[in-house]
Amino acid sequence: MIIGNHRSNGQVTPCEQCPLRSRPCLREFSAEELSFVKEFKIDELRVEPGASFLREGTRSEQLYTVLSGWAFRYKMLDDGRRQILNYALPADMVGLQGALMQEMEHSVEALTPLVLCVFPRSKLWDLYSRFPTLAFDVTWLAAREEQLIDEHLVSLGRRTALERVAYLLLHLFVRAEESGLVNGGFIQFPFTEQHLADALGMSLVHTNKSLKRLFITKAVRWKDRVFEMVDRPALVSIAGSDVTKARPRPFI
Question: Which of 43, 91, 203, 237 could form a disulfide with 118 if both were Cys (CB 3.0 to 4.6 A apart)?
Fold first, then answer.
């Protein structure tokens, strides 16, 4: 059951005033591209925390760009165990799998109050046929999701518990920084230790112990969900790999 979703009631952010367009990490649209995206966008969807607006096994008639808020992609096992695949932040696209394939192979849940730009699947061919630059952008976004899954698989398969925690926090910090959500090295992360455990493929107890080991290094601080990047080189060293920024990156 999908709950907590409601439409914009006519209050849709004009594409010319989109708050994402001012972010330096995102590429600029040409006048023609912006005009098409204005036609492509048909609505905005507001989703309450805890509501799944895309479900595994369903086919979506829409795809979405996150305008504000956090979401996460996940799969559920028959016994109720959850694996979080990755997180979606502002400017990320979700629902492309359900729009292009027969059905969604994962679900997407709002982690915070979420605002989504809504695009109809029926107009996706217009984008590909009329605007190859935007078609490349959609391809880039799909390839980036594959890259994120690659890193996630490396963590689950080869990184130690401490390395997994360090890399995931570094990864989420960098992505939040790109989205303009970090202020002076501080950010209020919206997820809990259980969310981290479900993303890391670890028990809650193991995740808690690994976090405490990480805090002892003084590379980061995290209290009352406020996360502080204290020593990034130290965190990179613990994670065993850095997270690079792609600038300027596309969005729709």
Answer: 43
